[in-house]
Write a structure and sequence with these properties.
single chain, alpha+beta, 6-stranded mixed sheet, 6 strands, 18% helix, elongated
Length: 146
């Protein structure tokens, strides 16, 4: 897998048990965690996206952002906060994780933004996490960052 796939799959696995009906199955969208794009269904969903921020030119190290969008149940404005707060407890302050060949030195949340409701009266919130990463060495960046 690519670094992005390793990272998103690893984070999805970590957060899959936050709520009993927010479950994740690899390569599916209907299980409660989706990658990159928010589908119309199910109502309660978490969407993960990885965005590179900076990469060291010499060492295989960098800082990426994980954007986590959550959408709650219809007509329950606090639902999304319930499971997004649970995700925060798992991810914020996590250190020394390995996802495939990717090493996550540390991660921390740096913003949480309520986005209001969609047309189906489902509240949406977006949390952003900063991750310091060590990548496998390459010909251009052969030294290990950890």
């Amino acid at each position: 897998m690519s670094d992005t796939q390793d990272l998103l799959t690893g984070v999805a696995t970590m957060i899959s048990g936050v709520a009993s009906d927010i479950l994740w199955t690899p390569n599916t969208v209907g299980g409660g965690i989706a990658m990159k794009t928010m589908p119309d269904n199910p109502d309660r969903i978490v969407v993960l996206n990885a965005i590179p921020q900076t990469d060291d030119a010499v060492l295989p190290m960098g800082n990426w952002m994980i954007q986590i969008a959550g959408r709650g149940a219809r007509g329950n404005p606090l639902d999304v906060d319930g499971f997004m707060d649970g995700i925060f407890l798992i991810l914020h302050g996590a250190t020394n994780l390995t996802f495939g060949a990717l090493h996550v030195a540390q991660m921390s949340r740096y913003s949480s933004i309520p986005m209001g409701q969609d047309e189906a009266v489902r509240n949406i919130r977006i949390d952003k996490y900063s991750l310091d990463l060590d990548f496998p060495g390459t010909a251009a960046r052969p030294a290990s960052g950890f």
